[in-house]
Structures are given as structure tokens and as C-alpha cells.
Amino acid sequence: MKLKLIIFVFIALYLNTQVALAAENDYGIVQAWFNDKNATVEGLSMKIGEPGTIKVTIISKIDGNVHVKLMEPGVTKAFEVISGQSKQDERIDNMGISQGWSKTFVWEVKPNGAWKNGNAPINIFVSFYNSDKRIQKPLEFTIANPFILDEQYPGSSPALTTGAAQSSPTGTSSEPQQAPFLTAAGAIAIVMGVWILKKGNR
Predict the structure, then answer these.
(1) What angle do the packed helices 2-17 and 180-200 form, to 10 degrees?
(2) Would you place residue 181 in the very low, low, confident or very high pLDDT band (cuts 50, 70, 90)?
(3) Does the reported pTM lie above 0.90?
(4) What is the three-class DSSP state of 140?
(5) Residue 191: its pLDDT value, please?
(6) According to the model, what pLDDT value does residue 21 have?
(7) Which residues pair with 93 in a beta bridge?
(8) Does residue 173 surpass a pLDDT of 70?
(9) How far apart are CA 184 and CA 149, in angstroms?
(10) Is 121 exposed, middle or buried (CB count within 10 Å of its CB: 0-12, 13-18, 19+)?
(11) DSSP single-letter state for residue 4
(12) Angstrom distance (rounded) from CA 92 to CA 125
């Protein structure tokens, strides 16, 4: 009985990690998607020049200001913004908003060739400022962490930058992320669950 309970706990943990959680604090909620997949998106690869769509929805719980920035935590900037409400690292200021305010931001980005043969996370940074209490509370997490291939996307312009580093950028932030251990544990739990059910039916 205890073994069955442990297996079900592992399965629950495994399934829970498949659902991306929105970042949230006392002042607001931030949800993000990359190519319509819930953040943080892992296990994908992109070619140089391949477009990807970032969508971020922000909900404010307070009266005040909301500041939004699309950014990369790595030193080498691997992405270029094709279209959207701002350039990368450019802050969008939403001033004098009311509690319940909500807005969706959309950017189209592509790897620019400055980084390849490695992962390049791209983050969203949102800061909520409560004008009554004069307190600011930020949220930041990785939307996607694609592996950038050393290949040109068909139809895109050749990358101008070459000779990029081969290892991961420093200073990456990838929270929330799915832990590899939980993925393996979930797979083991499912196999054990099937084995126990078969054994019980004999």
C-alpha cells in the first residue's frame, strides 16, 4: 500500500512539472508563452534566423505602475527582436494603472548568429510599483531556453556574426524550470505503476 502511495506521489509530481506555473507575487501575475507553449519552454532548438513568438500577459493586483522588459541574462545577446512593443532590454512603462489592469505583450524574435552550439535563455522582467505604499516588487523568469544550432533557417538572411562561443552563456536565469530528476522519477513511477497493476491482476 505504501509503495502504491509513493508511486502516485511521483506521478503527481511528474505531471505537475509538465504544467508551467505563472510567476506571481502580492502585486501581480505574469504568464508567458513561447510559440504557444507555456513557459519555461525547454527541449527545443532553433536555427539562426528562425522566428519565434513570445507572448506575455500581465495582471496587476495594485494601483500604480508596471514596468516590463524583454531581456537575456547571458553576456552574449543571441536574439534579435523582429517585431513587438519594444526592443530587447528596452523598458516599457505602464504608468498610473488600476488594480485589475491586464495587458498582453507580443514579440517576434530570432537567433542572430552571435551565439550558437549552445543554449540561450530569454527572460521576461516585470516590476510592479505600488504607488500608495511606494514599494516595488519585481518578477523575472525564463520564457524559453532553446539550443541555438549552427544552421541557417531557410529564407532568412545569413548571420553577420560568426565564431560564437561553444558553451552556455554566463549569468543565466531559468526559473521556473523542470528538474531532470522529476522527469526521470515520473517515468520510473509510471513503469512501476503498470508493473504493480499487472501483478495485482494475476
Answers:
(1) 140
(2) very low
(3) no
(4) strand
(5) 44
(6) 52
(7) 67
(8) no
(9) 26
(10) buried
(11) H
(12) 10
Beta bridge partners of 23: 30
Torsion sign, CA atoms 8, 12, 13, 17: positive
Query: Is pLDDT of 192 > 70?
Result: no
What does the DSSP 8-state code read for residue 75?
A: S
Task: For residue 185, give the H/E element and its range.
Answer: helix 180-200
Distance CA 192, CA 140 (A): 37
186 by Cβ neighbours in 10 Å (0-12 / 13-18 / 19+) ranks as: buried
Residues 6+ positions from 114 with CB-CB distance below 8 Å: 76, 77, 78, 159, 161, 164
Residue 105 pLDDT > 50 = yes
Question: Under a CB-based contact definition with an 8 Å cutoff, are residues 168 and 147 in contact?
Answer: no
Question: What's the confidence (pLDDT) of residue 46?
Answer: 98
